[in-house]
Amino acid sequence: MTATTTWTILDGAHAALRATAAGLTTADLDRPTPCTRWTVAQVLQHAAGDQLAYAAAITGRGGPAEDPFAPSGVLAGRPAELVEPALAASAAAFATVGASGTAPTPLPQGTLPAATAAGAAALDAAVHAWDIAVATGRPAPLDDDLAAHLLPSARAIVEPLRQYGAYAPALEPDGHDGAAAELLRYLGRDPHWTAAS
C-alpha cells in the first residue's frame, strides 16, 4: 500500500518518483542524466537516500546506508525496491509534522517551517524523477501544476545550497516558460535536455 501524508505536494512528488522508478529496466541504469556526473542508477540512489535523510532528520532514526552525494551506481535489487521503502519512510515521517510547526531537515539550513521542509523533500523527489525520466526517454513527470507548488520551496532553500554543489547556477529564464521549465532553469537544468545534448 502506498503511504501518503497530509502534504499534497510531497505525495505528488513521491508519486512521480515512484512511477518513474517502476518503469526502469536494467538497460536504463547506466544512461547519462542531467546530473552530469551521475548515471540513472546513481540519481535513483541519491533520490532514495535523500528521502531517507529527511525521514531520519524528523524521526531521529534510520537514514541512508550510503552517502547520497556519493552514490555507487550499483543496485542490490530492482529500482522500485530501492525507492519504495525510502518514500514510505519519508511519507510516514512527514505525516507526523503539523502544518503550522517546523521540521528538522538534513539541509545545512537545519530546521525549517514545516511547509518549506515538506516542499524541499518534494522538490528533491520530483526533480530527480524528471532527471531519470528524460534520461530514459520517458514523459516528464514534472508538470506545471506540481512545479508551481515547488517553486516557493525552491526559492527558499536553493541559493545557499549552490555553494555546496547541490544545484548548478540558474539558467536564464525564457519568457515563454511554464512553471516546470521555470523551476528547472532555476535549478540549473535545461528543460529541453536530452541524452544527446
Would you kindly provide a written description of the structure presented here, covering whatever features stand out?
With 197 residues, the protein is mainly α. The protein has a domain at 8-143: dinb family like domain (Four Helix Bundle (Hemerythrin (Met), subunit A), Up-down Bundle), CATH 1.20.120.450. It is 51% helix and 2% strand. The protein is built from 6 helices and 2 strands; from the N terminus they run αααββααα. The protein has helices at 8-22, 40-59, 79-94, 114-135, 144-162, 179-186; strands spanning 102-103, 112-113. A two-stranded antiparallel sheet has the order 1-2. Helix 1 (8-22) packs parallel to helix 4 (114-135), helix 2 (40-59) runs parallel beside helix 3 and helix 2 (40-59) packs antiparallel against helix 4.
Topology summary:
Layout: H1 8-22, H2 40-59, H3 79-94, E1 102-103, E2 112-113, H4 114-135, H5 144-162, H6 179-186
Antiparallel strand pairs: 1-2
Could you name the key traits of this structure?
single chain, 197 residues, mainly alpha, Four Helix Bundle (Hemerythrin (Met), subunit A), two-stranded antiparallel sheet, 2 strands, 51% helix, Mycothiol-dependent maleylpyruvate isomerase metal-binding domain-containing protein, DinB/YfiT-like, metal ion binding
Question: What's the gyration radius in Å?
Answer: 15 Å
N/C terminus separation: 38 Å
* CATH fold annotation of the domain at 8-143: Four Helix Bundle (Hemerythrin (Met), subunit A)
Gross morphology:
globular
The neighbouring-strand order within the major sheet is: 1-2
List the helices and strands in order.
HHHEEHHH
Average per-residue pLDDT, rounded, comes to 94
CATH architecture descriptor text of the domain at 8-143: Up-down Bundle
Main pleated sheet = 2 strands, antiparallel
How many DSSP-defined strands? Answer: 2
Q: What is the count of DSSP helices, taking H or I runs of 4+ residues?
A: 6
Point out poorly predicted stretches. Answer: none
Query: Which structural category do the helix and sheet elements fall into?
Result: mainly alpha
Strand portion: under 5%
Proportion of helical residues? 40-55%
Pfam families: MDMPI_N (PF11716)
InterPro entries: CHP03086, DinB/YfiT-like, Maleyloyr_isom, MDMPI_metal-binding
Protein name: Mycothiol-dependent maleylpyruvate isomerase metal-binding domain-containing protein
GO molecular function, one term: metal ion binding
